[in-house]
Specification:
The protein has helices at residues 6-11, 18-28, 37-44, 50-57, 68-80, 88-100, 109-112; strands at 2-4, 33-36, 62-64, 103-105. The chain has one domain (2-118): 3-Layer(aba) Sandwich (Rossmann fold), CATH 3.40.50. Helices cover 51% and strands 11% of the residues. By secondary structure, the protein is of the alpha/beta class.
């Protein structure tokens, strides 16, 4: 299972991009693709068209709602990673991947690497 970060959702729309090629390869291989609701929110803030949203949504098996257990995990990650304000949304996305048992596909390795020692697996 692979959890897609916002940048994978956005760049998945760009024909020929590495991200769009990986999305196609993962889908063809039968990989389960998910995303965190905070990433979906960031993606749909756009600018994107309804057709683009539908195209990316067609790759996703699940949009994972952000609930109380995810909030607790995100808070744990945020605190463990040093309470940097810029990591708040990233902690929510990382928590979703960890709780779902998924690896995270992201281009933001700098920020998400702070969560690797605390259970996050990166693609």
């Amino acid at each position: 299972m692979i959890c897609l970060d916002t940048n994978y959702l956005i760049l998945g729309l760009m024909p020929g991009s590495r991200e769009s090629q990986e999305l196609i390869q993962w889908a063809q291989a039968g990989e389960t693709l998910i995303t965190a609701m905070p990433a979906w929110y960031e993606f749909t803030c756009g600018p994107v068209t309804a057709k683009q949203v539908a195209a990316i949504r067609s790759f996703l098996h699940h949009l994972i709602a952000f609930d109380e257990p995810l909030a607790a995990e995100a808070a744990r990650l945020f605190n463990a990673a040093g309470r940097k304000r810029t990591l708040r949304i990233d902690a929510m996305i990382a928590a979703t991947a960890i709780v779902a048992g998924a690896s995270l596909a992201t281009n933001n390795l700098k920020d998400f690497s702070a969560f690797v020692p605390h259970g996050l697996k990166l693609v």
